[in-house]
Amino acid sequence: MDYEISLTDVGFTRRQRIDRAVHTLEGILTGIAIDGTINPKEVEELKAWVNDHRKLVGNHPFTELIPAIDAALMDGIIDAEEQADLLWLCQNLQSGSTYYDETTSDIQRLQGILHGILADGEVNDDEIRQLSQWTEDHCYLKGCYPFDEIDALLTQVLRDGEIDSTERAMLKLFFEDFVSYSLARRMKDARSGTTPSRKISGICAVCPDLAFPDRTYTFTGASAKASRSQMAAQIESLGGRFSPTVTRVVHYLVVGANGNPAWAYACYGRKVEQAMKLRADGHALVIVHENDFWDAIQDHSIVSD
Length: 305
Description:
This protein is mostly helical. Helix 2 runs antiparallel to helix 3 and helix 5 packs across helix 8. The chain folds into 2 domains: 182 residues, no CATH class; 89 residues, BRCT domain (Rossmann fold, 3-Layer(aba) Sandwich). 53% of the residues lie in helices and 5% in strands. It starts with 10 loop residues before the first helix and ends with a helix.
């Protein structure tokens, strides 16, 4: 994912991209220290951001930001005071553009946090728990990509209070897919001609809020409770619509439980990949587990009665 800003950008487009770069930097600074320590690989990630934007040093706010980061990096480390000073500078040098609302800004910060967490190539338990706390503090982002996916994964991983190596690897894989590799690794890959090929899909939202009137549903996977036509009839009886395919008019993709009573993280193939791509493009489509679908059917039926 490229954060480079063209000097020819004007008006709202230029301010939009400046805000995005500064929000990402703010997130990186938060992410690299989210576990209470900053190691050399994480410092390299910060250097990579600077190098990606160094040609803009003559333009506000990079005139102030880049020299401040360079000064902090002179001894090769970033201590807690320097991190706090740089975060303060980020928060006070934003363009003031009204182009982005609070939601967009925080999604950009989340992206920066993931950059920072991945900077040393590892995802440790403290980072996972601190990120979980961040998602709890920013629950208003529910419904946005990739907040729902990350929230669902963290809920699954932390459900039993233990984090194993497989769960760490699963989180790292999704984080890498979202940020398209860290800045430093992206630059290295560009020089070597390699590109990331790992993908992850099949994330169900946690406790989704499902509506039916004027909403369109589609399904994937197998249901243990009903046929697809019976599920479609249930939706239509509550004022909703059924679509056999995933398109931009779809609001919910229901993933079949296939008899499994637990919330599941699994790959269901083509429809989930299509839904994930639409979410990544900004479409407000929610991927839900079948159990949540039936709970919503029951709730709406009770209200109707």
